[in-house]
């Protein structure tokens, strides 16, 4: 037996958390498993012996399990998890060791102790209605300390329409043309109960011995190396494979695969004592030949990060055909991927699952509430490892982490009502924010301290469970030992100020150039108007103030200049003079935007336009640009200042610096596209992007980076949207091939990137051709192709006549080729641009009576129509239109009455924004266009 332990780090005294009742930071209460009823603690498992006999071709499995159970409190029943689909065939209970009081009596007597197994009478055993539980009721209660063996025989179905629990799937052997079946497990998060009766909660970590029956033509895999193979007692062509006893592990970490796959074998790690096998169907095995090298490199970084080797003696990685789960199955020592994921370039997916081998398997969350912090830390360590591989000159694909994640959570948490009603969005954004807090701590405590803190945590909790607090405690102890965090500050206190709020702060820096000081203030960052969030004055964070000065430019020093310790305002001194800028929060060390006084913004814009701009790292250049336009959008900064921050892009060729600009173009473009300023803005976009696109060229060059490819693709998309003639002509030329094809309904030979420019800038004939394709769309083709075509038909056109024609056909004429879902989709797509929602509004107003009758019994369509037609206006003209309609039809809105009232409130707020900002934007654009010698 070979379990590999982390070496204990002696950085002071390691604190072992024995009391498991303390509460972790309440990260998210929405995850369904958090509220799941826990098993009673009357009995606890100490080991499993699981025997499984899957019949992959026949679609079912049989099995037995022996669970050694220790009685914690006098118990009259044993409660296990059992999925409703699992059929229990037999159950009995045997006492292996007597209770504590009997052992004491025997020890105090001269009699030889008799600990032979004795049957325990079972009164009844049954599933609990409406719960995934199995109750074994004993005739007499068993006292504390008794050790019991629970034996259960069971059977269940192998499903092939889902990749959960113990499932099956198949592929066709290209040589024999025969169907090959295989069976595999995906137990996370709580699907072990669908395979065998068990204590299916993460707190129960116990060893397992697994035996698997297989046909002699097949191979079986489990968490540990194979120990023995014996002949099946009933079937001549079958054998039993028994695997070595596992370390203590949760039930979700169990992995079993039975297949006829081929494999490659390697020894990895410094001592060559980790046995790696990569598995795939025989005709796919060559597609994963580079996996061992990627695994070895990722493991090298991870072993150094955690301060301990890979914790098991072997690792099996499989590429499964027809694997349907959205994420890989990371059993301990067995990882299952989709074929496309395992064969893909780069190592992010591999690294992500390898991190779970330590964090989740070697150390497991105590309960599901801590699974979120586990997930966030896994994502951070994955990103850390990927970045280390890039630093080692590995050929990793383009990755703009953490910018994309930062931009999305800034957007989400700055809404008046973050997440809406979506639990999934809340879980994801909160996890992303927690991941960024780990990144912030890595910078502010120092990478060495952060990693040693993680090693301290892992050495303390290996083969055990943990709370989120255990992670913060280990970081606190390490930071204090390294004198990076003075008493009484704790990392838990810092982290909690971020994790427990569905908000982010904005820090405003106001410099006093007379005495070289600055005032820093924090408040809630609100981008979406109006800024009337209740109790926002109560929100305060622990904010690290990392400061860069133009006169030193030392971006490698990420030690905070000071901390805002949940203080509304702090003062800092000894800053450079009025000719030198400062940058707060460089490299997005903390997830918060920063505003400056106009003079400091001006210094930054001027410096970025100089040849020295690359002295500011590209991530910080991107941050300055992103912060500026988001603050302007929120009404906290002049748009003239924000647009000045884009001037340096004339010489910029790094995709990370351009990325915020494409978002700016999209957001600002949508906001002003109903005004006269929009045409000037499109001219600005063409002036900005044309030199970049012409320099990059239309076709990729040999050996170019993924970043350049992304830059070319994005610049082309936005140039097309802005009416760049070469782009439109290229799109029309490609579209012409479809129009001239003998059977245009057979398939779409045009790349999706060309369709929207044609429908937006092309002729009515081209658009009508697309409409005809939707109407005549063959049932044999993928519905998603039709959906995309319908989306572009509705959402792309500039011409109101095209939109009106589509609405006439679908709503008034009630063409049978269009469903209610199609109409709902059309309404939704028309909100994407002023031409769309203005045309929809005019159509509604013109045909009110007819539409009202048509939708009388379809309130969901009526509400959708009113919402799409009235809520998106952003100018006084739009406010007047909607107000007039409201007065005209005030008593006729029915179920959509609340929609129109809310729309009027929102449009008033948007109108105020337009009145404040459009003159500033227009004045700046006029000067920009004149300077670049272009005409509107």
From TrEMBL:
<dbReference type="InterPro" id="IPR014782">
    <property type="entry name" value="Peptidase_M1_dom"/>
</dbReference>
<dbReference type="InterPro" id="IPR024571">
    <property type="entry name" value="ERAP1-like_C_dom"/>
</dbReference>
<feature type="domain" description="Aminopeptidase N-like N-terminal">
    <location>
        <begin position="45"/>
        <end position="252"/>
    </location>
</feature>
<keyword id="KW-0325">Glycoprotein</keyword>
<dbReference type="GO" id="GO:0005615">
    <property type="term" value="C:extracellular space"/>
</dbReference>
<keyword id="KW-0472">Membrane</keyword>
<dbReference type="Pfam" id="PF11838">
    <property type="entry name" value="ERAP1_C"/>
</dbReference>
<dbReference type="InterPro" id="IPR027268">
    <property type="entry name" value="Peptidase_M4/M1_CTD_sf"/>
</dbReference>
<keyword id="KW-0482">Metalloprotease</keyword>
<feature type="binding site">
    <location>
        <position position="352"/>
    </location>
    <ligand>
        <name>Zn(2+)</name>
    </ligand>
</feature>
<keyword id="KW-0732">Signal</keyword>
<dbReference type="GO" id="GO:0005886">
    <property type="term" value="C:plasma membrane"/>
</dbReference>
<feature type="domain" description="ERAP1-like C-terminal">
    <location>
        <begin position="581"/>
        <end position="908"/>
    </location>
</feature>
<dbReference type="Pfam" id="PF01433">
    <property type="entry name" value="Peptidase_M1"/>
</dbReference>
<feature type="region of interest" description="Disordered">
    <location>
        <begin position="100"/>
        <end position="122"/>
    </location>
</feature>
<dbReference type="GO" id="GO:0098552">
    <property type="term" value="C:side of membrane"/>
</dbReference>
<dbReference type="GO" id="GO:0008237">
    <property type="term" value="F:metallopeptidase activity"/>
</dbReference>
<feature type="domain" description="Peptidase M1 membrane alanine aminopeptidase">
    <location>
        <begin position="293"/>
        <end position="498"/>
    </location>
</feature>
<dbReference type="GO" id="GO:0005737">
    <property type="term" value="C:cytoplasm"/>
</dbReference>
<protein>
    <recommendedName>
        <fullName>Aminopeptidase</fullName>
        <ecNumber>3.4.11.-</ecNumber>
    </recommendedName>
</protein>
<keyword id="KW-0378">Hydrolase</keyword>
<dbReference type="InterPro" id="IPR045357">
    <property type="entry name" value="Aminopeptidase_N-like_N"/>
</dbReference>
<feature type="signal peptide">
    <location>
        <begin position="1"/>
        <end position="19"/>
    </location>
</feature>
<keyword id="KW-0336">GPI-anchor</keyword>
<dbReference type="InterPro" id="IPR001930">
    <property type="entry name" value="Peptidase_M1"/>
</dbReference>
<feature type="active site" description="Proton acceptor">
    <location>
        <position position="353"/>
    </location>
</feature>
<comment type="similarity">
    <text>Belongs to the peptidase M1 family.</text>
</comment>
<dbReference type="GO" id="GO:0008270">
    <property type="term" value="F:zinc ion binding"/>
</dbReference>
<keyword id="KW-0645">Protease</keyword>
<dbReference type="Pfam" id="PF17900">
    <property type="entry name" value="Peptidase_M1_N"/>
</dbReference>
<dbReference type="InterPro" id="IPR050344">
    <property type="entry name" value="Peptidase_M1_aminopeptidases"/>
</dbReference>
<keyword id="KW-0862">Zinc</keyword>
<dbReference type="GO" id="GO:0004177">
    <property type="term" value="F:aminopeptidase activity"/>
</dbReference>
<keyword id="KW-0479">Metal-binding</keyword>
<dbReference type="GO" id="GO:0006508">
    <property type="term" value="P:proteolysis"/>
</dbReference>
<dbReference type="InterPro" id="IPR034016">
    <property type="entry name" value="M1_APN-typ"/>
</dbReference>
<keyword id="KW-0449">Lipoprotein</keyword>
<dbReference type="InterPro" id="IPR042097">
    <property type="entry name" value="Aminopeptidase_N-like_N_sf"/>
</dbReference>
<keyword id="KW-0031">Aminopeptidase</keyword>
